[in-house]
Structure formats: C-alpha cells, structure tokens
Design a protein that fits this description.
The complex is a heterodimer of chains A (about 550) and B (about 425). Chain A is of the alpha+beta class and about 550 residues long. Chain A contains 17 helices and 23 strands. In chain A, strands 5, 6, 7, 13, 14, 15, 16, 17, 18 and 19 form a ten-stranded mixed beta sheet that branches. In chain A, strands 1, 2, 9, 10, 11, 12, 20 and 21 form an eight-stranded mixed beta sheet that branches. Classes of the chains: A alpha+beta (about 550), B alpha/beta (about 425).
Amino acid sequence: MNKNNSKEYDVIIIGGGVTGAGTARDCAMRGLSVLLVERHDFATGATGRNHGLLHSGARYAVTDPESASECIKENMTLRRIANHCVEENNGLFVTLPEDDLAFQSQFVDACKTAGIGTEILDPDFARRLEPSVNPNLKGAVKVPDGSVDPFRLTMSNMLDAKIHGAELLTQHEVTDVICEQNRAIGVELFNHAKNEKVKYYAKIIVNAGGIWGHHIASLAGININMFPAKGSLLIFGHRVNKMVLNRCRKPANADILVPGDTICLIGTTSERVPYDQIDNMFVSQADVDVLIREGVKLSPSLATTRILRAYAGVRPLVAADNDPTGRNISRGIVLLDHQERDGLSGFITITGGKLMTYRLMAEEATNLVCKKLAVDKQCETAEKALPGSEKSDLSLDNATDKIYSGMSIAQKSAKDRHGTLAKNIAVGDSNDDSLVCECEGVSIGEVKYAIKELHVNNLIDLRRRTRVGMGTCQGELCACRAAGLLCESLEEPGEAKDDLANFLQERWKGMSPIAWGDTINEVQFTSWIYEGIYGLKPDNN
Amino acid sequence: MKFDNIIIGGGLSGLTCGIKLAELGKKCAIVSSGQSAIHFFSGSLDLLGKVNGEEVSNPLESIKTLADNHPYQRVGIDNMTRLADEVPQFLDRAGLKFSGNANQNHFVLTPMGVMKPTWLTIEDFTRFETKDSFPWKKALIINFSGFLDFHTLFIKDGLKKLDVTTQIKNVSMKQFEAIRKNPSEMRSTNIAKVFDNGDALDEFAQKANDLSEGFDVVILPAVFGLLNKQIVSEIKAKILKPLVLLPAVPPSVPGIRSQILLRKRFQALGGTYFLGDNVEEGFFENNRLVAIATNNHGDIKLKADQFILASGSFYSKGIVATRDKVYEPIFGLDVNGETNGSEWKDEKFFNDQPYMHFGVKTDSQFHAMINGEPVENLFVAGSVLGGANALKEGSGAGISLLTSLHVAEQILK
C-alpha cells in the first residue's frame, strides 16, 4: 500500500486510449509532470475497435457540420504529424441504385461549407479508379478520406509523451478517486501484474476513460450521463478496395469499407447496449448478416472474400446534462470541468468525440489543465511530428526503397509499422532477421524491439504493437514462436504457456462469429497443433 | 480409365485403404489433392487417449463406453481388436517402425513438456511407460541457433515438474548459413534436408557429444530423416548419450517421411497415385457411383467397382461450411451438422466444439448416403466421418487407420 505516494504529479491521466495518449503527450510537451494509468493495455477500448478511418469529415457534413469541419482540420494535421500511421488512400461516396441521387448535391454543398474538398466523378471513371466498387453505381464523389492505424497512432503518442518525461503504467486499474473535501487529489490503483494496490497523487486528474469514464467519474461521486453504443465490424482477409468506400446517403449501418494494412474492413452497426455489458462485447449473427448484406452492396466481391474476424467496440455517447433520457445525444467533443459542473475541483473529464479528433480533444483538455495550474504554454501537438513521422529524408528513403530491393520483407513491414523508429530494430544479424510471423512479416528483431521499448506485457499486447497473429493464419504458427520469445525475456514458461492459451482464446473470439469457410478450416488446424500435438490446456499449463 | 477401386484422398486413411486393397490384389487408384494431416503428424498414432476428459489406460476396453454412432462402434469391438493388432505389421511392411499396444496406452513427451497418452509411436520418438516420471535426471536440450519452431523453455518447464534438471544450449552450424539468410527458410524440413545430404550430421553429433558431457540424456527437435530414412538411426548411433527427439512446429519431418513411405508402398504394390488432382463430380446410376470426373483428367472419366471417400475433415476440405450449411463438396452426400451456424461452436476455444463432430453420414457398413439412401458402392473412411471429436478423444489416427482397414475388408468380402 501507499507506494510512491511521496511524489505528486501535475496531472494523472486515466485511460490508455488515443485520447489519454494524446493528452499525456500534450501535457508533457507543455512541461507538466504526467502519469498515465491504464487498466489493460494501450488502445484496448474503442480506440482499437473501430474502422481505422482517417475521416475527411464528409460523412458528417450534412448531419453534423461542426464535427465535419473538426474532422477535416484534424485529417490534414494527422497527415503531417502522424505520417507513418496514415495511408492517404482517398475515398469515394457512391450513390447506389437504391439511393437518391438528389442527396449528392446537398452532400457536396455541405462538404464545401465544412471546407472538405470534393470532386464529382463520372460513374464510369469511378469504376476505373476503384474497380472493386459496385458497378451499378449512379454517382461518385471523391473526398480526402484515408486510413489510420489506431494502435500505431496511440503508441506513437505514448512514446512522445515518454520522451517528454511522462510515466506510463499499464495493467493498473483505477479502484478509487481519492478526494479531500471538495478536491480530487489522487487515484487508488490495482496493479494486476503484481496483485497489489498502489496510490498516486496529482494536482489534476483527467478522466479519459472513454465509455469507462462513466464508472471512473462515479468513483469520484460524479454522474455523467453516458450511453454505450455498440458498433460491430468485419475484417476481410485482404484489401479488396484501394480507396475508402462510403455510401452517399445519411449515415446508416455498414456503409463504410476501409482498406488498411493487409486487410479491409466493413462497419459499423449501431446498437445501444446496457452499461453493465460494456466489457462483454460480442458480435451476433444478426450483426454479421447486416454487415455482409450491406457490404456486398458497396463492393460485390466481398461476398466471396474470406472474412478473418468480427469485432465490436463501444462508442462513448454523452447525453446533455439536461437530458437524462439520452435522446439528445452529442457525438461531439465533451469536456467537463467538474469544479464548475459538480463542485469537485482537480477533476476533469474528456470524452465523446472520435478517433479523428483525439488530438483536438487532448488540446482542449490540456488547455483546461494548464489554465487550472496557471501554466502559460501554447499547444504544439499540431505542428510537431510524432516519433516515427519525423520528416528527415523520409521521402528520399521511400524513393530509394522502390528502386533498391535489398530490404527484406520484414524490414519493409517494420518501416511501414514504425516509420523512422524502424531504425531502432536490429537487422542484418541472421538471428534478428528470422521471421516470427510470416503473414505479416514480423522479425525477431521487431519483436525484441517491441518487448524492450513498447510496454509489452503479453502476447496480445505484442499483437497490437507488431501485427503478430493478425494475418490470415490468425496466429496458427507464429503465436507459439512469439510465446517462445516472450518466455526468453519476459515471462515465466508456465505463464507464457497460459498466455499462449489466452491468445488463442482471444483470436477465437473474433473468429467464432464468422467460423465458416476457410476460417473454420484454419481454426480446426490450429486446434490440432496446439491441443493435439502440443498438449496445451486453457490454463494452469 | 478403369480400376477395381478408387480412393478419394491421399492422407493416412486413403493410403491405408489403398495399400490394404492393393496387398490383396486389387487394382487401385488414389486421387490426392496434395498435403494431408500426416504432414503435421506428431510421431504418435492415437487410438483413444481420453473419454469425457479422463485419460484412458486401455483403449480397447474404453471403446465400449463410446456412443453408438461413434465410428469405432460401427466397426465393432471384435473387428477393432483384430484390426488394431494388425496395424504395426501393416506399417512395418511400408518401412515404418511403430511400437505400442492397443490394450495399454503408453506416453510421449509433447513439445510443451507434458506427457500425453498414445497407442503407437514411431521409432524416432521415445516411449514412456508412466506419465509422472522421466527415466533421466539431467537433461540437455539442444536447439539450432535461429530455429524458432522448437520451444526449449517450455520443455524445460515441463521437465522441471518431473524433477529433471535441464540445461539449454544453442548450436550454430555453418551448413545452415544458406537457409538462415532467408528469414522464412529456417524451418524443420529445410534443416532435415541439410542433414539428409551433407556432412553436417557428423559435425553436429560431435558438438552435441562435447556439450552433453555430464548429462544423462540429450533432447533435440525432430528434424532428422526427411527423405533419407537412415538418418534417424545414424544420429541415434552417433550421439553417445540416450537421445529423445521431440516434435517441432509443423510441417513434421517424420510426418512427411511417413507419407512418402506409405505412398511408395502403395505404388510398389501397383497402385496409381494421382497427385495434385481434385475430384469434381460423380456419375450415379441406380444407387451406384459408376465414374468420377477429375480436374486434371478432364473428360476422361475414372471408373471403378467401388469408391472410397477418405477426403478428411474441414482443414482437408472433405467437408465444407458456409454461413448456413455444412456440406460434402464432391457428391453432396448426407452430412451430420447443424444448419444454424451459431450452434456450430462454443465460445471457449478449448471446449468440445460441436463442429469437430461434423462429417459424412453412413449406414452401419460405412456406405455413404444421399437423401437417406445408401450408395451401395461408395464407402466412407477416416476423419471425413462424423460422430466423434477426434481431437478431444485422441482418436484421430485410430479412426483413420481402423475405419479404412474395415472398409477395405468390406470391399474384399
């Protein structure tokens, strides 16, 4: 008990999603002493469970002009500061035979108002530009959509926060917000790795827990009216489309198909779920049916493309304070100063918003923190590049890569994943160059780098950092190799075997809703290897 | 083209059936699409390892407790006893030396370092008579530098629970430099090829002998003898201490060797092995399958008096699942399997998954059925049969071998 309580931080940030990461970075860059705490691992909540869409904002242009203009600004910012996390794919808003073409002009006008560049394309030209699109489209508008890897983006913000002196704790769950009179002064945490309670103190506590922020606020005796909305998505085994495909109509279910890395994904559904179910998200048969039915309309070849996984995230929707029924839901950024709102000083909540606007959310939250601490420093997060995206001679590098093929697949993949930080990955030694994961080109060197530098505690964390086990075999062969490496540097062998069993269970969770075709064949093979040949058990190995 | 019997599937089941029929003078063909489950063979053949999660000591005795529709029950206990007894000699005639007893399981050490009950074990590997003791006290595990498919620390951990002190050493070999250059090449089959062909064996044995000074036993990954089957006995002779080989991540070196030897045995008996061919459709007349068409043979149909379907389970594509149905893709045979996809699986990966029990329906003589009617000359054998979770039971090899031998006998009657 009471370890480290001698040190008081300027700010403790609760939540290791992208908002928490961005806030930690911003606070640290403005010279504050920062502690970030996360109950599981970075990017395990809604951050890691969405489309990975670099929104142009066009989707909100008609229904929510404010969000739309926020999106396009942040879109352009992320292209600059997080170049290695972004794919500048562009997007199409297509009008299908069942959609009303009249919506197109309303859409284009709204985009213009929000500052989103559009280009109306001839359907024939759109078909040539994006051959996977439904050939019966009636209209197409090109917008500056793209793809963004939320795991990389979060990690990169975390790394920069660390470079600027922030301390990061994963596997630390907030069990209480410590208050003294009308002031929040610290947090009590349960360290899951060591099974012990610890307390840390700070001048300001920032609640960036996403949907879980509802519970965290309640620990401080504060009620925030949050409504969890489940969104389900399907991941396909390869990239069907080059450009992001959207339906040119008011936002509805399963109308965005995003290409990213080696895969593409369709989503989402939207369904209110009870708050007590937010840690228990599963994708139902009905969700899968909707996603396939609507997805095939956007791109008919999805009907015959292998589905790798299904997953669901929970959006943190916040009801206006005067609306306990939740009818008047905001999708915008919600920054709550609990001193003003509830009379509790030292505690603020940043929630709502979107992956796209995480940086802006972080900026607003940090502005409030700085105001409270009377720190007069400007936000620089929109100008300074994230680690991995420093300009240097990146463009020159890319040009040479294309001509000079001396780089191995693993090196190329590592560069895609880590940007300029890939230079920290050992190469050239025949040991470090060996491939752990053949689907995704992950080398021993990259795994070692991730274990050493990127806060990896187990196989599932390692997957988020490197894409180990995210490819078509879903960990069939690489999981065991990676577990072997973790065992060498991090875990006790018995623990590593249980970790391997957990990893297989986690892979199965995403495969079971779509367990047919090649997926069921693959999972049967995986079962035979691990349970049949290896004799792995679910626990106590 | 006309044969006495055509077997669809070139895995353990298809080859067993083909060899048995060919041994008794039948003119047979096997149509094989390519790799099979033998390529990830663990080195042991299980008959029955567990019933309801409990380890089985006497497989033949415990078979009596299985459900009526289990393939073993359809073979019948008397036939099972007789056929199980035949298997070691049957494999021996193909050049595969296995030992074990259908009345008493022995144990093998898995690559996780735990003991697993089994029926027959190939000579490469070591048989243990009890699960809670290891005959040696000080073990040396040797791995090859850069070889990721052998998890020495897991083995060490398992052996610790058996009161064995273990040390791990890595050995670098200049002969592996070429395969280590390409990061995806350092796999067991490529290491085995180096040992098959070169002088690496002597040098490695020398290193292993130097390192194993003071140890009771040497443990190595099973990367010996891919095409050259003498290599296993050579390495055992050259290494002075007792040698325990353990399986590595698939593909399996002893598995590929076994597949090749079984195929050669079949061909030596006059069998025709169509490799890389797929059966596209069957032609039926009066409840009989008269001919099949294959991808490579185009409009030259393959005819036979009897056909055997031994096309494997899901991963071999013997049965196929779509969103709303499970079907047999060649002939559209009747299958056991839920139509509602959500009933196929359990949310826990390690639970008894319903889909594992799915397969082709047969009558009591293993005739395939179409719309409830048996096809009188189309038999079904091996893991394409439903009615058992061979993974949970540890019965995969037993079902493949014994249903195939039984079906061959039905045809020879």
